[in-house]
Amino acid sequence: MRLAATADDLRARALRLLARREYSRQELASKLLSKPMPQPKRHRTRQSEERSRANDFAPDPHANDVYEPPTESEVNALLDDLEQSNMLSDNRYAEMRTRLRAPRYGDSRLRQELTQKGIDRDTIAAVIAEQPDELSRCREIWLKKFGRLPQDMNERAKQTRHLASRGFAMRIIQQVIRGEGRTDGTNDIENSLD
């Protein structure tokens, strides 16, 4: 027998997901539409346990039940309701995601990740503007990983590739690798390590 999930089941599942962490609207919709609702657990009472022992070999009448995924309109209606009650917020998700990822990644990587999660450009720009500047974040990562200026072209290429893979702009990477833009007025980053 094919069973459709009820609105209450769908809402309960969405709230369970949101209780664990923030989701963007697109991400939560995808999660809710991706698979059918799980079969509801049946509460066992003392009487039902006695009946099940007596009918150990009786077939489960719900064993072949198939739960269909919810429709897109059902999910959109639920998401609208969750947004109105402020339980779901793309702004809050973007702030959380950026705050967690900014210490390790550059602005272009953060923009890409948020765009993939369905966050609009204005929200992305506002959230990234609140983070520490990209140069200081890049310098911190560079100091932790390498800590000294490159001695040859191979080392320079290795440092550049590492920082570029983290999503930092090439002009920022070049400033860090050259030791430019120090706040203490010196151009030699190695002095800060002593």
Question: What would you say this structure looks like, in words?
Answer:
The chain is mainly α. It has 3 domains: 1-36 and 65-88, Arc Repressor Mutant, subunit A (Orthogonal Bundle); 90-131; 134-193, no CATH class. It contains 11 helices and 2 strands, in the order βαααβαααααααα. It has helices at 7-20, 25-34, 46-54, 72-84, 90-101, 107-116, 121-129, 134-145, 153-165, 170-178, 190-193; strands at residues 2-4, 66-68. It has a two-stranded parallel sheet with strand order 1-2. The radius of gyration is 26 Å and the shape is elongated. The model is unreliable at 184-194 (pLDDT under 50).
Which features would summarize this protein structure in a list?
two-stranded parallel ribbon; Arc Repressor Mutant, subunit A; elongated; mainly alpha; 194 residues; 11 helices
Total domain modules: 3
Proportion in helices: 55-70%
- Please state the overall shape, judged from the principal axes of the Cα atoms: elongated
Number of helices: 11
* Helical/strand content category: mainly alpha
The ordered string of helix (H) and strand (E) elements is EHHHEHHHHHHHH
Total strand segments:
2
What is the CATH third-level topology name of the largest domain? Arc Repressor Mutant, subunit A
Oligomer: single chain
Give the biggest sheet: 2 strands, parallel
Q: Provide the low-confidence segments as ranges.
A: 184-194
CATH top level class name of the largest domain: Mainly Alpha
Could you tell me the mean pLDDT?
A: 83
